[in-house]
Amino acid sequence: LVAAVAAEHHLPFLVISAGTRNHFAMDLGLDRADPARCLDALTDGEEIRVDLGDVSGRPFVNTVSFGVYADIVQSPEYRDNKTGTALNLMPDLLAREGVQRLEANVDGNRLAEQQALLISNNPYVSPDELSGGGRRPRLDTGELGVIGIRVENAAQAADLAVRGSQATGLTVTTAHRVEVKAGEEQIPVAVDGEALWLRTPVTCSVRPGALRVLLPRDRPGVPQPAPPIDWRKLLDLAFGPAERTAPGENHA
After folding, report:
1. 2-239, what's its fold?
2. From the CB of residue 132, how many other CB atoms can be counted at a distance below 10 Å?
């Protein structure tokens, strides 16, 4: 939300890597181990422009997640072991009867019957490069990354967890605009790790170069992502440390 204010008023945005996972700071090349180094941007800084994602009028800098994560965060075990619980529950949730199916319009192309969708502000180069915390080599491509999951049974769900990007149930693409429908008035959506309920259709887009970011000249930089895919890292990236917000509550 602070990034949205900075973009609206054309002010430079300073990132301090003191959050939970610091995906945005990592992809800006900042030092996640030493947040104080980020303050060097105030005395010896340089400015860059990056893209800013938008989900139904709400800004995001990392990811927007749809689908089975909503069932996972309701689990009593989730709070104690988020990624482990997600990994254990994912095959059953994907394959169970009656699981919510999503339909996405991806730049005019239909992506049907998805159990989960991950939309990112700029793409990850490939699903294999979501390992090591999930990195985007660039934040100024003017594109969204799109990852969709569709499986029909428990065997296919398990295959997805084992084979990752080689599984038939995984779709990876890029887009400028994604519209998500689910046959319900509201659906749960995780925006940068915060669980919300948004009215359908939910529209994701990207604002190229909308955000000025002030960075220290001396920073570690963006390391090269390393394959192969780590499914735990993908779940960690998609779900985040979220609290569910009930329908009808004020999300301001």
Report:
1. Tumour Suppressor Smad4 (2.60.200)
2. 14
